[in-house]
Description:
Structural class: mainly alpha
Radius of gyration: 27 Å
Strand order of the largest sheet: 1-2
Distance between the termini: 70 Å
Number of domains: 1
Number of helices: 15
Largest sheet: 2 strands, antiparallel
Oligomer: single chain
Amino acid sequence: MPQVVYGVIFHWLGGLASGSFYVPYKAVRKWSWEVYWLAGGFFSWIIAPWVMALLLSKGVVPSIVTVLHDNPKAVGMAYLFGVLWGIGGLTFGLTMRYLGMSLGMAVALGLCTVLGTLLPDIYQGTILESIKTQPPYCVILLGLGVCLLGVILAGVAGMSKERELPEEVKRESIKEFSFVKGVFIALISGLFSACMAFGLQAAEPIAIESANHGTGDLWVGLPKLCVVLLGGFTTNFIWCMLLMLKNGTLYQFFTTTINDPDNKGQKVTINYAWNLFFSALAGTTWYFQFFFYSMGETRMGEYKFSSWTLHMASIIIFSSIWGLCLREWKGSSRFTKFVLGVAIFTLVYSTIIVGYGNLMKQTNAEEASAVQAVEKGATNIIEEAGDVLDNAVETLEAEPAPAN
């Protein structure tokens, strides 16, 4: 099976993880948003990345520390982009809060898809040359365009839902629904979330160094995730701490009796272990999007930039499905649900196009290698035949002439 097929499967698994991570948060009871978001963040940005990197990277702690120590510039840039991406991750959580899973992810990830896929190549100045000289690159860009169309259709479905449903119905599934506030935050989230693509690219020397230390090629991306996600944790930690100090919710981390957010002036007892478990589950599930992303990226060959498109499209697909399962589209018209269905189908089709573009490149590379092998083999045969002929001529010349 071509390696790119494995790459697409890994990206779909990552999309499933990212599209599903917010579901466990819905089981958290009475904690403020900033409390359960930070609780989950400890697992998604700190605990899970280091545990998986230590388990699967060669040499455990010493080699990871050595790899990071030997690449200070890559670590610094990856951390900086991680901090900027953290703004996107932070506002991404707020997007889910105000728009719900399906609409929120469609708007935020739409902008993130385009920027995260194209900006690195635009920044390096290679995009025009690639378009002119590499047909598979153009196919992948076509897949990106189809993906963007799917995102637009998802947004149209969301706006249709906004017009059709009364406020009380919307708030049955999304308690703090606010379309204007949610879309504004989603745009900010999409802009800064694209910095993850830059962060992973800046951290590439870390992956190369990890491979030099003996890490298998499937896992070389795990150490660089530790750095980028640490930057994201920094941003989210500062913001959540500020919110907890402002709202007086920091104490919720340390007690089972809190002020009831739904009945002011009253106390309520919470299941602390239950809240922590579901926050940890959500955070760990979130991390696995990039765990599988890093694996998929190693299988996409020269066009691994298209990994971002595959990742974003699959997230929107699975989050839209979860939105339907959680009845976020309850009461919407058939037209709205039809548009959403077309959007999901379009996004699925975009991943097929991107995968085919990568397969074209891989097939072309294999054919070129085969041609080179045949040419090399033919050259060797000709050279060997020439050597044999030369030896025969030399032998004949060295033999004495026969007597008359």
